[in-house]
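User: Need the bound-state model for phosphoenolpyruvate:
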Amino acid sequence: MAEFDSNLQKLIDKPTETLDGRKIILKANLDIVEELDYIQKNGAEGIGLVRTEQIFDLEEEFPDEETQYKVYSDLAEKLYPFYVVIRVFDIGGDKVFPVDVQEPNPFLGWRGIRFLLDNKDLLKTQIRALLRASVHKNIKFMLPMISSIQEIRKTKEILEECKTELREKNIEFDNNINLGIMIEVPSAAFMAEEFAQEVDFLSIGTNDLIQYLLAVDRGNEIVSSLYQEFHPAVVRSLYKIIHSGKKGDAKVSICGEMAADILATPLLVGMGLDSLSVSAATIPHIKKIIRSINYEDVKLLAEECLNFKTEKEIRDKLQVYFSEHITDEVENIIS
Ligand code: PEP
Ligand code: MG
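Assistant: Bound-state model below.
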């Protein structure tokens, strides 16, 4: 295992591309700022998801604009010239809430963008901090839990308000800052093409998408066997999102845990994703898989997976692909 790990380390400066030359951008998810060093050491080409609700201690109160600005601009400076995708607070659901709210179904309640649009000052504070930190033009920002086009449009209006306020004070920012949305609610998956036309990029959040698509609480042990990333409905949804997003002229990436599952890598690349954001520890492993596959092969593999009717058939197919195409060395780490 030590030898295997040191072989992985050697990959850090090698390009992330398939055997037939398809380039994939491999980024990292960041939950605590201290991870940044490790992320960079593992060769990430940027950060595909900063969970801002995790990096600040929200238990007591929301951080003010200055506190947020310092953290975001420090990340942007250290990551330059790579991009940092900063997601605005995704609070509610199972996440920390500095406000006392009792909801019968928090996962279906006041979560993510819904909470932020109802607390406009809070959202504006965060957007202003992001804009001010965007002077190096390598910050993108992202909205969680989008389920309707109105939520995107309302946020865009608020973004314009924030820009006007900064302009009036002669504060510099990236006027073309990219805006993206998480696709993690089934309505967003169905509307991906129209949503894509409103924004610059989509990022697929499989952690929530699977939960909402299959009606399985992502944290409930009792039903954990029903939480299936290779459920045919999940695989077909991913395919639809990727292709609708591209039709709508937006870049499409994935930042849910599924992207860090090496069994899923050939499928995700085969479905046309060219950007994955994963936990830092898995970057070398995912890179190793990508460098062992042929894009033309995995496109066919993905097509076959789209026709299966059960999770088992898809999983079996991917296992067989792995044993036939990926080195024994890598197979050892998934068995
Ligand atoms: C997701 O839902 O896949 C995601 C990346 O967001 P989070 O895990 O923070 O809900
Ligand atoms: Mg989510």
